[in-house]
Amino acid sequence: MSDQAKAYTKLVEHLKGLGLLRSCASVLGWDEQTNLPPKGAEHRANQLALLAGLSHDRATDPVIGELLDQLADPNSVGGDQTAAYANVRNAKRAYDRSVKLPKKLVEELSRTTTLSQHAWVEARQKKDFTLFHPWLEKIVTLKREEADALGSETGVKYDALIEDYEPGATAAQIQSVFAPLREALVELVSAIKESDKKPDISILERKYPVETQKAFSIEAATAIGFDFQAGRLDVAAHPFCSGFGPGDCRLTTRYDEHHFPGAFFGTLHEAGHGIYEQGLNDNDFGLATGEACSLGIHESQSRMWENLVGRSRAFWDHFYGKAQQAFPDAIGDVHIDDFYSAVNDVRPSWIRVEADEVTYNLHIMLRFQLEQALLCGDLNAADVPAVWNETFTEFFGMTPSDDSIGCLQDVHWSAGLIGYFPTYSLGNMYASQFFEKAQDDLGDLNAMFAKGEFMPLKEWLNNNIHIHGRRYDAPQLVEVVTGKPLTAEPLLKHLRGKFGAVYGL
Amino acid sequence: MSDQAKAYTKLVEHLKGLGLLRSCASVLGWDEQTNLPPKGAEHRANQLALLAGLSHDRATDPVIGELLDQLADPNSVGGDQTAAYANVRNAKRAYDRSVKLPKKLVEELSRTTTLSQHAWVEARQKKDFTLFHPWLEKIVTLKREEADALGSETGVKYDALIEDYEPGATAAQIQSVFAPLREALVELVSAIKESDKKPDISILERKYPVETQKAFSIEAATAIGFDFQAGRLDVAAHPFCSGFGPGDCRLTTRYDEHHFPGAFFGTLHEAGHGIYEQGLNDNDFGLATGEACSLGIHESQSRMWENLVGRSRAFWDHFYGKAQQAFPDAIGDVHIDDFYSAVNDVRPSWIRVEADEVTYNLHIMLRFQLEQALLCGDLNAADVPAVWNETFTEFFGMTPSDDSIGCLQDVHWSAGLIGYFPTYSLGNMYASQFFEKAQDDLGDLNAMFAKGEFMPLKEWLNNNIHIHGRRYDAPQLVEVVTGKPLTAEPLLKHLRGKFGAVYGL
Questions:
Q1: Per-residue pLDDT tens for B48-91?
Q2: Where are the alpha helices (DSSP H) in B78-207?
Q3: Of A144, A438, B171, B365, whose Cβ has the fewest other Cβ atoms within 10 Å?
Q4: What is the extent of the structural domain holding B63?
Q5: Contacting residues for A276 by C-beta, under 8 A, at least 6 apart
Q6: Quick check: is B109 in a domain?
């Protein structure tokens, strides 16, 4: 074996060990959200800080730096188009970032965000921002410190952080995509508002027994291809998906007996993430080629299954009979047309994760605006509720009555995830662009859905997207898959087409 | 600060870090038993092996050796009667053991026992020993290797292993306590067999809805003092208790709709362990003074709450009305006398964890005999079913119809826990001796139980046993608490008194 081959083998071993160690922290993180008894929060924070510190030690081990130096020339691993070089390139990016962060900051961030999430849960429950305020302040301070340590080419703090979620993206680029999208969306929302058609959403607020919701959600998630032999569905305050590694991916949701769409579409959404995780190459666990490409691409998978599939007419042509059998008291007498309209009702609403496909992106833009201001210092943590409500009113024409349906609704900031939100809207755009291409390749997807055939799309995603892992950066992946750079056109075309029909525009 | 004080502070820091790291593995171990999707077993085994290796690295860090050398003189920490010296002494014992074990063996044992437990679950379900046989063989080989690496003063392999569970005990000592106990028990069983009184145990096999069992078990566990704000109760194939650390202790049980005692007394048993864990000094987490004394002492707590409290007449004087309300269809028409007799029915039975108080110890003695033979090489893994059945027939006068109610019933060997079983019977003896002393100190405990007052006993245990952690070794603790060395007399007195009354002997 050549020295370079030996160096690559050693690097792979090191990265896999690091991935394995990090996946231990994922288990503790998931358990924290799903099972932790209240008095265990402090101990859990200590456990996670310890693991974060140990992972940081491994991630910054000078041995990695030396191995990466030996492999600096792409030809040492067969050229810059190889999977091996993708692993080297990504490892270098991660290593260069990690060594900039002091271990103390990494541990402090881990400890703080663990405890802060418990404070957030309580603040949200009690609708009391003051319980969360000191934590948010501390987190923003730490994230600013992190951004300064990392640095960015643009000199913008926010760009230093977004790199963790959407490598290569910048706030300015995102803004330049968001601005015209926002304009088009506002126009569409306004046209919908003028329409005479008003779906009756009260049918979704009838009684849907929780156990039946759970069984029905699991049935649908299984049908679209999530493998419950390699995963689970549990309850958490905020729905999420956590892939621990080969054979183990956990979904969470939350049930409201009087609100059907929350848990159902939430589960489809998380199952979409889960199908991506389950579609990664198990043998490459710990390497870039066995890892999701970016959060934006991750969201493209979840939003596709949730919306382009789950909220399609064809999906309900297949599933509505089953739904009526499962919930006879709620929708036994409801016509599929009315149900379909109700789950596609477009109107300003409080909660992002339950928002319709059109207004959803406005929720994202609001958060994107606020978190940039928080990070650059234009907005103080203390002023978040007031500024949230003011901006919300500007965007949606209505004002939250309390913070639990306003600035306290999302877990992200309490978890230190600043810079994460824009990936949701990027995901919506990626999703539509991928979906168009899948349709080109596979033929009439809706005709398949109407027959309950979801495997062709699932396998297309496996073979065209999941298989690559992080081999390409997101912008490059979009071109590899669709032959075009990212554009909002497919999303707008989809929204105009679908809601034009629903609202007779 | 003196050099010695500095060394002690450093030692404490090191030990706490090690405890914290080990507690991460506890979370993964618990999750493995309660939540793991089938396809995640391999990855989980890799995670646990990694953590076992990391813990081993820390446990054998030469720095600990140096610190312990600096603190070798008890006077360096205030004398041999101090809590600090107890921590040093226990740390030295643990360090001396750890450095004898090769890291590779530690990782291999972790990986093997993780995977093996899944094989055991399947083998037990399918009543097919051949599925478990290769794993048992591998485990026995590894445990023999471990015993050889550790060595023991007696030169007996089994004694090297028992040190992990009951420090200072040997197989010969245990045998010398077990022999007369067995004789007395066989005599008592035989007298009971002659009795005309035959409790009607069919009333315990009526329909007890699982959800109600769960609620009722939680009510009882709460009443005896388990804090569910600092713990949970979940379902697992084999009931256990795992204390992760301050504020987080997990109990598991398993429900059978047609067998009331299993989950109920099982939960009281695990809650007894949990109350011990919750009673440890949180500030000393990671140190001997914040750790349970031994498994025998741990079992004394669980068996006390399960049997001396939970199967007492006084307990049911308080709880029976509630039980009748919870399960009206099953026992609405059953007199308390009949119920009390049924839950104290003594007869040969297949399953250890559900055995009555009298025959239980015979189940232990059988396992003690077999695992000694396995370890010294007198018994091959392949012959375990045949020898189990033969010995069982000798002990109980009946032969298991399949291995799921025979040699496959317990998780222990699949988890590598060889040398653990005798601690259950030691626990029974400790329990009766402690209980007698508590009664001396507190007055009529049964009168308290009958009024639903369990806190006096719980607090007595907190203040007399839990508070010491591992400050004393078990034999010493018994003397400190009761003023006498361990003897089987209190257990035999309890059994003869109680079952003499139940069976009119």
A1: 999 999 999 999 999 999 999 999 999 999 999 999 999 999 99
A2: 83-98, 103-126, 129-150, 157-162, 171-194
A3: A144
A4: 3-99
A5: A292, A297, A298, A301, A302, A461, A465, A466
A6: no
Q: Which of B82, B99, B116 is the last residue of a domain?
A: B99
Number of separate domains in chain A: 2
Q: Which of A41, A232, A244 sits opposite B43 (nearest CB)?
A: A244
CB-CB under 8 Å, B47 with A23: yes
Structure confidence at residue B168 (pLDDT): 85
Q: Does B42 touch chain A (CB under 8 A)?
A: yes
Tokens of A485: 């750079």
Q: What is the complex's ipTM, to 2 decimals?
A: 0.94
**Out of A32, A146, A166, A270, which one is annotated catalytic?**
A270
Judged by a CB distance cut-off of 8 A, whether residue B245 touches chain A is yes
CB within 8 A of B377, min separation 6: which ones?
Answer: B144
CB contact under 8 A, B28 and A23: no
Q: Which of A37, A228, A229 sits opposite B247 (nearest CB)?
A: A37
- Give pLDDT tens digits for B389-440: 999 999 999 999 999 999 999 999 999 999 999 999 999 999 999 999 999 9
User: Is A183 flagged in the annotation as binding?
Assistant: no
Query: CB of A17 within 8 Å of any CB in chain B?
Result: yes
- The predicted pLDDT at position A484 comes to 95
Q: How far apart are CA B95 and CA B19, in angstroms?
A: 13
Of B21, B41, B46, the CB nearest to A50: B21
Distance of CA A18 to the CA centre of its chain: 23
Contact A230 B40 (CB under 8 A): yes
> Span B220-249, mean pLDDT?
97
Whether residues A377 and A259 share a domain: the answer is: yes
Condensed to tens digits (0 to 9), the pLDDT of residues A463-497 reads 999 999 999 999 999 999 999 999 999 999 999 99
How near does any CA of chain A get to the CA of B257, in Å? 19
